[in-house]
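TICKET #2291
ISSUE: user wants both folds in one file
ATTACHMENT 1:
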Amino acid sequence: MSATDGTQDASDTWGPRARALMPGGVSSPVRSFRGVGGEPFFVERGAGPYLFDLGGRRLIDLVMSYGPLILGHAPEPVVAAAAQAVAEGLSFGAPSPREVLLAERITSAMPAVEKLRFVNSGTEATMSALRVARAATGRRLVVKFSGCYHGHHDSLLIRAGSGAATLGVPDSAGVPAELASLTVSVPYNDTEAVTRLFHDRGPDIAAVIVEPVAGNMGTVLPAPGFLEALRALTWGAGALLVFDEVMTGFRVGWGGVQGGGVTPDLTCLAKVIGAGMPVGAYGGRRDLMALVAPEGPVYQAGTLSGNPVAMAAGLAQLDAIGGPAFYDPLAQATAALADGLEERAARHGVAAVAPRMGGMMSLFFAERAPSNMAETEAADRERFARFFHGMLAEGVFWPPSPFETAFVSQAHTPDVIDGVLAAADRVLARL
């Protein structure tokens, strides 16, 4: 469809129409720009590292659909594979070979994922994994970390109260307090708090779910030994360790974060394995996945799960990535951007840090890289909002929230990175 569809093509025309029909005028809250102020622009198309808005303005994109577009927008092999799949049928309601092929790619890259089930989103993946964990252990309590987002299902849409380990209270209207109380939230990277929790309530804990590199409070790296401690504590208590690699899976490395040596019992995936199409997956040890229907008593289903177009797009993207060698240049590009931002901020007397891993990074206006949600919240959010709008005016689309992660793709070549840094230099000089 044409961006204009026979009407005016300005975002200030589409915005009121959208708000009249959809909450906030958006299909996901962060797109509303509430975290930074102002009105969102509307997109006509993407190509490589760029977005084009309805007025024809070209923007260097560092949102990249929040992670899936590791090859850039509309890469030829993914578009061709999806187009062929569309021509053959949008949905079958029956198995297709592409499901098997994509499952083979994923399990070959992630040895901890011996079997998996495709779903339609990261939310479905984490919800289903916790259902398996509770069935496998016969326990109800789940441990999560404040600032880690695992989708919008009721079991995990909670925040921490005061103290190191607090029973969850709902973070959204409509979430029953009784259900939220089955989740305990602990500060990220706080090994002592998790240890105390397992000492007090170990026999009640079904699972610990964690983003092994946090990406939903900005990019926050795990402290040395943190993931290893979670593995030891869960093993010792008979609980399961669930890695939410929805963001990090095939984004920071071919085997995800778990490729670095810490092996979870269950893994949740989405984003890169769908190349921009709605898709998710959860998987893990063969004995755990044998609990899932029709093999076992844990029911989970989805009419569009394993959708042939999504499978084709994801398969083409993983084939284009090819293996571990893809990630060194990606990490180098991300480091060049992160280091360049830190250097320019320092030059202009602006306190800023840019933690990064693989193809993901953030910019915090703070003296040091945050290690948990409280520290990310303490960073200068007003300055971030000014940075965001300054970059947008310079033709760079940075994530519109200080708690989101920026993403670099293969299409972000050195000249594109240089363009971002030149824009940032001008913006930081004004901050």
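ATTACHMENT 2:
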Amino acid sequence: MIVHSSEIPYFGEHTQMTMMCDKCGWRHTDFIPAEGKKPGAWEMNVDSIEKMNVRIVRSSSCTVIIEELGLEVEPGGSSTGYISNIEGVLNRFEDAVSLIYRQSLTDSTERENQEKCSQLLSEINLVKNGELPVKLQLLDPMGHSQILDALAISRELSTNELDTLRVGPTVPVFDADDLI
């Protein structure tokens, strides 16, 4: 386990925790704020190339949504937190769509998926170039995620959102005696 505490501007003191197993390759990273947080949502209109540099802190419990493109990533069992910028978030979506596109090339019956992926990759590129405005949303039931920009809007999550959002991975607890 590696634990590192530091100060992120506008986010405050946080602890980055990374746990890993040398034997099986399992790895989990998350960002935990020093002070308690309430479940919350952040959103920002991404309408220019300058916004690609806006900082994002995404915890392992955060759902990321870009409705205009039909993109959503929920936290899963191996979800990890990260600090990036809006361009980095778009790159992560682009990598996932590119993987699906490459897999569809091996099957001639996947022509429709190839076209959808190609169109989506073009749209992500337009967003990166500031030519297609979208709204980036972070929904975090643990309250650890944030968009670090004065133009970002924060709000509390609704009861319905709290009931339906996934929380992400649970960190396993090991007994040290069992590992020896």
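RESOLUTION: both attachments delivered.
EXTRA DETAIL ON ATTACHMENT 2: The longest strand covers residues 12-20.
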